[in-house]
Amino acid sequence: MPSSLLLSTLSPLQAEIRQTSVWWLPRNVNMFGHEIDFIFYVILWITGITAVAVFSVMIYFIVKYRARPGVPAIHSHGNSALEVIWTTIPVFIFLALAIYGNEQWTQMRLRTPPADALPVAVVGEQFGWNVRYPGPDGKLAKMTASKVSKDNPFGIDPQDPDGRDDFTTYGELVFPVGRPVRLYLSSKDVIHAFYVPEFRLYQDMVPGRVYDFVWFKAEATGHFQLACNQLCGQGHYKMFGKLSVVPEPEYEAWAKGKAPATTAGSEANSSTPVAVAGR
Amino acid sequence: MSTIAASHVAEAHGHGHEEATGWKKYIWSLDHKIIGLQYLFTSLGFLLVGGALALLLRWQLAYPSTQVMPNGDVGNPMSLPFINPQFYNALFTMHATVMVFLVVMPLLIGAFGNYLIPLKIGTGDMAFPLINELSYWFFLASGLIMLAGFFVAGGAAAGGWTSYAPLSTVAAYNGTKMGQTLWAAGIFINGLASIMGAFNYITTIVNMRAPGLGFFRLPLTVWALFITAFLLLLAVPVLSAAGAMLILDLNFGTSFFNPAKGGQPLLWQHLFWFFGHPEVYIMILPAMGMASDVLSIFSRKPIFGYKAMVFAMIAIGFLGFIVWGHHMFVSGMNLVLSAAFGVSTMVIAVPSAIKTFNWLGTIWGGSIRFTTAMLNALAFVAMFVIGGFSGIFMASTPVNIFVHHTYFIVAHFHYVLFGGSIFAIFASIYTWYPKMFGRMLDETLGKIHFALTFVFFNLCFFPMHNVGLGGMMRRIADPTAYEHLRSLQPINQFITLSAIGLGFSQLIFFWNFFRSLKHGQPAGKNPWQATTLEWTVDSPPGHGNFAVTPTVYHGPYEYSLPGHSRDFVMQNEPPAPDAGSGSPARRPVHAG
Predict the structure, then answer these.
(1) Interchain contact A39–B (C-beta under 8 A)
(2) DSSP track, B165-177
């Protein structure tokens, strides 16, 4: 059973092709996505109702106050009470949105990731993704932005004991469902961005920096496409990666099948589906 | 009183330079009206260029030249083979650059700012006519330099109009060293043109208003351009400096922005957006001011809450400088800073809301005349509302994590910049064309143009919200490269067809514009029965504008004043002896 599951994972990955509701949001599989979607719908309702109200009033005025012979316009320079009202109400609505949004932002970006989070390093380059996973020790080699180079995409110290059992892939990400994942994001050359709409997740990856604050927890399995969403050159439009969320045992089996990285590099060791399937 | 002293200055300037004649008039004229028209014609030309670039890039999105067809062939049979991914990147980069720097800014500020400010404040010309003319030539040069990028090795700049470093600053990464350098040089020179215009406008408005024309009697158009000039003066030098640094990084081995040599990529973003967000208001404030004037004229009503409108614009101008970080929520800058920018961004929505309510208040109780100008102004309000609302989604930091850099934001800024600024520009052209050329634009053609533009605009840009929510990234040359976006492709094709409809509808406008120069109905001095000073002089006004410097007795929006035979009172109309029959508060204040 696990091996057939393994094969199904590793056969050429198909991202979900949405057949229904193509005009709307894709499904959400990230625990933080619920809050994002909730705020999205709150704003949608507030703006939707306000838009209907504003356009109704506007159309009513346009019809009612169209020029007619013998009906002069009234002469009015305004109304201070109205100005106060329609200044105060938006102030409170916008401040409420800002405060609630910040609360969620803090949860998503400023809260320390759980200790059991799986650390995964993703380093962009023109035009692909270097990915580094921890081996059985569960620890990634320490990344130093200033050490990132052509031959050392993750900027690690080759002697770092935590890195000995790490393994790497190129453009292939597999996450266990239900377990927090903490990303370490950087770039070798220009700015790239880690974007997966089903995860409601976007983060720029700026060269010279390692971002370690992005974490998430996938709540459902599936196959998705990781997309670079920061213009990075002529190959930008096809800088995508495969991203799968699978049950934990399936993830463990997949990880076991990966050879540890013997050098700091990644491409040389990246496993192809064929190589692993033949194991 | 200082305004009287200023009026002498104004006269001195009005007649300080001789009227140029013949062909020289269009090359060396220092007359603000000629310079305004130079800006108008040049930017309308650039509008055609920017529009053509837009249609090409839309075609690629509907029928990608890189699409892998079901039979394995590469290239949609309908595609244009010369659009490769690099050229596509150049197309959207230059589309945005042309539209922002060579169309919307120069139309609003160069054309209408130059043409209307001296006329509306009752003076003969700008404070510095020679600098004014230099500003135009710098602007034209900047446009030609930027577009020259298409003809050099590597092609035009292809790093987006935001030109994020280090993609834009390292030739090995972008492959368009020459094009990118020309882009930055163009931005630098364009910035100089803006700065020259800005201090000219400020000096003119502060010093050369007609006697009696206090600041709170200025039409909102002038207020808007006045505030915009301050934004230009404070924001544009930052962009020019950043552009110079980009050139140095790209060509001369410095590394301001290159992390490989110790530079900071986020520095570029801070510099760019410190300019870039005030820039957003630079492109909408004059539109707000002019649309306000148009709404008032054709509702035959004073502006509702004139002072609230002025203070709202001042608030926007101020807050506009402390919200730039909202472009960088997901750039990895300090996360607490993002939270702070999130709050300031929500706050800046308030003055925009105030303005919208006051526009509704202005048409309330009016006697609305549905001229083409008025239809465009009403569309401006409606489209600005939609564009404002979609902005709230992105101002919310958590939602921004999801919609950032998707087509949702492409929809948003086109609702603000096309739905807002361009509709306001059309409203303004229909309103002031008779003043500029002495002839009316054709109303029937105008209404056909308006209806088609309004319908195609919404068909084109509204579905972009949906594909954005569906997860489609901006700036990708081929959405079919992504499996999860393939089911959105019919919507992309629909958007492209609507864009083509939108583009070709503009030909009606151009036809109307050029045909009416010769064949339009004669306009007379004041075809719209409007109140402000430009309507007191001939159409087009002669050199020096005013034979006698006017004296102002009234506010700019005295429409439908009870007890008057006409439904408008010109600003320079001396008060009748019995004009005090209304409420004392409204009694015109005599200028000292």
Answers:
(1) yes
(2) TTTTT-HHHHS-H
Query: Could you tell me the pLDDT band of residue A273, with boundaries at 50, 70 and 90?
Result: very low
Q: What is the pLDDT of residues B511-525, one digit of tens each?
A: 999 999 999 999 999
Q: Judge if A178 and A56 occupy the same domain.
A: no
Same domain, A97 and A153: no
Asked if A95 lies within 8 A of B346 by C-beta distance, the reply is yes
Architecture of domain B2-586: Up-down Bundle (1.20)
Which chain A residues contact residue B336 at CB under 8 A? 110
For chain B, domain boundaries: 2-586
Better-scored residue on pLDDT, A251 or B578: A251
d(CA A150, CA A188): 7
Q: With an 8 Å Cβ cutoff, are B332 and A36 in contact?
A: no
CATH at residue A259: 2.60.40.420
CA B469/CA A26 separation, integer angstroms? 8
Q: Assess whether A156 and A258 both reside in one domain.
A: yes
Search chain B and give the residue with CA nearest A149.
Answer: B260
Identify which of B301, B396, B401 has the shortest CB distance to residue A73: B301
Is the Cβ–Cβ distance between B74 and B67 less than 8 Å? yes
The Cβ of residue B5 has, within 10 Å, a number of other Cβ atoms equal to 11
Tokens of B20: 């140029």
A226 Cα to chain B: minimum distance (Å): 9
What values do phi and psi take at A120, rounded to 5?
A: -135, 130
Chain B nearest CA to A64, separation (Å): 8
Chain A closest CA to B586's CA: distance in Å? 10
Number of Cβ atoms within 10 Å of the Cβ of A141: 24
Nearest to A73 among B303, B406, B559 (CB): B559
Kindly state whether residue A222 falls inside one of the protein's structural domains: yes
Report the gap between the CA of A101 and the closest CA in chain B (Å).
6
Do A201 and A92 belong to one domain? no
Q: What is the pLDDT of residue B577?
A: 65
Q: CB–CB of B167 and A233 under 8 A?
A: yes
Of A110, A136, A161, the one marking the end of a domain is A110
Clarify whether residues A84 and A169 are in a common domain: no
CATH number for the domain that contains residue A47: 1.10.287.90
Calculate how close chain B gets to A15, using CA atoms only, in Å: 6
Q: Apex CA B311: angle with CA B305 and CA B316, to 5°?
A: 125
Q: Which of A110, A131, A166 is the last residue of a domain?
A: A110
Side by side, which strands form the sheet with A167-170? Answer: A167-170, A128-133, A118-125, A180-187, A215-217
Domain region containing A185:
118-277
Q: Which of B299, B346, B483 sits opposite A98 (nearest CB)?
A: B346
Does A84 share its domain with A123? no
Residue B306: its chain A contacts at CB < 8 A? 77-78
In angstroms, rounded to a whole number, what is the distance separating the alpha carbons of residues B520 and B516?
4
Closest residue to A189, CB basis, from B84, B173, B302: B173
Tell me how far CA of residue B319 lies from CA of B190, B341, B417, B462, in angstroms: 24, 11, 19, 28
Q: Does residue A20 fall inside a structural domain? A: no
* Locus of tokens 């050139």: B247
Residue A262 included in any domain: yes
CB contact under 8 A, B393 and A65: no
Under 8 Å between Cβ of B356 and B385:
yes
Residue A4 lies in a domain: no
Does the distance separating the beta carbons of A197 and B350 come in below 8 Å?
no
pLDDT digits (tens, 9 = 90+) for A13-56: 466 667 777 788 999 999 999 999 999 999 999 999 999 999 99
Q: Do B477 and A236 touch (CB under 8 A)?
A: yes
- Tell me whether A14 touches chain B (CB under 8 Å): yes
- CA neighbor of B226 nearest in space, from B215, B211, B212, B214: B215
The total of structural domains in chain A comes to 2
Q: What is the pLDDT of residues B276-323, one digit of tens each?
A: 999 999 999 999 999 999 999 999 999 999 999 999 999 999 999 999
